[in-house]
Design goal:
single chain; 159 residues; alpha+beta; four-stranded mixed beta sheet; 6 strands; globular; GerMN domain-containing protein
């Protein structure tokens, strides 16, 4: 009798399904592609808080490209009220290495050239892009400067 009850319950479940109705084929809109609309860079609002902004590059890029873009932009043409604690650098982008759980960045700047929150901008941008690329093992960043100063490993205070 118990076997019959179990068999009937199993059959009833198969017949009833999960309760989700089929929808058919959708023909509107573009298919998801997985391509990033741009890279997320971190700037500062009027209170000095970190704010992520998407720079529409039509691709995610890598950590080197993202931090290079952050350094090249500085405060240039910021119409959104955000600012940077990093000076605009015209040449020689960062050198980036990744090992185990840490990304190391050598910036083409001396520590004295970077404002109080500039290191946070670099750390958050680097870690964010690395995570977006699918690698969740990297959890900290070390930032080095041309004058020999090294900071870190640090995490992003905005996350």
């Amino acid at each position: 009798m118990i076997r019959l009850a179990v068999a009937l319950c199993a059959a009833g479940t198969l017949v009833a399904g999960c309760g989700i109705e089929p929808t058919g084929v959708f023909t509107d809109g573009d298919a998801p592609t997985g391509v990033a609309p741009g890279v997320t860079l971190f700037f500062l609002d009027q209170q000095g808080n970190l704010r992520p902004t998407v720079s529409e590059t039509k691709r995610l890029g890598d950590v080197t490209q993202a931090v290079d873009l952050l350094l090249r932009l500085g405060d240039r043409n910021r119409e959104d009220g955000l600012r940077s604690d990093l000076p605009a650098v015209g040449s020689l982008g960062p050198q980036v290495t990744v090992s185990d759980t840490v990304v190391t960045l050598l910036l083409p700047l001396a520590r004295r050239e970077v404002g109080p929150r500039g290191v946070d901008q670099v750390v958050c941008t680097a870690l964010g892009v690395h995570r977006q690329s699918g690698d969740t093992r990297v959890t900290g960043a070390v930032v080095s400067f041309t004058d020999g100063t090294t900071i870190g490993p640090r995490t992003c205070p905005a996350s």
